[in-house]
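Is fe (ii) ion placement plausible here? Inputs below.
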Amino acid sequence: MGPAAFVLRGFALPYVDELLPAIAGIEEVAPFRNMVTPGGFTMSVALTNCGALGWTTDRRGYRYTNVDPDSQQPWPEMPVAFDRLAREAAAAAGFPDFEPDACLVNRYLPGSRLSLHQDKNELDYNAPIVSVSLGMTATFLFGGQERTDKTAKVMLYHGDVAVWGGEDRLRYHGVMPLKDAPHPRLGSKRINFTFRKAA
Ligand code: SIN
Ligand code: FE2
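Reply from A.M.:
I modeled the complex. Tokens:
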């Protein structure tokens, strides 16, 4: 997608049997919820987190927290398989020392979308973003350094891993409204994990 931005097709497929039960475990402790943006909009994407830090939003802003704001309990630990997948994908894309401390888990239903944004709430932009797609196919929009820059449309299929870092780290990106084309294993749902080094 760019000099330091890649889609690793099918990279997560060997991990799926470990990832799906792990998601169920996370959901039990920290359920998916539709959070409110600082502008007052309820996100169509529902989210939860695992790892030391979790990304959250409310009327006061976007931030990382070490507890789930709904339960005041720490976010579920990052499953070993998640951590291994994130590091191996980063290394395969040329980022050998990635140490994720945050994993945002996004759940898309038909019609869910994510408007163009930059991932800017992390302290260290040297670490890449590693984003894993499971379930229904998404049309990912990958733009430039400015919101108004032209965007490329990239299809993300079950098992694909997108990695962007280096000079591409702050590029705008988003997801088009999800079409309802049920996935054989996950049904009418897309799950995305986004690994970051937040602190
Ligand atoms: C994100 O930017 O947080 C998610 C991207 C995706 O769902 O593919
Ligand atoms: Fe993002």
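Short version: The chain is about 15% helix and 30% strand.
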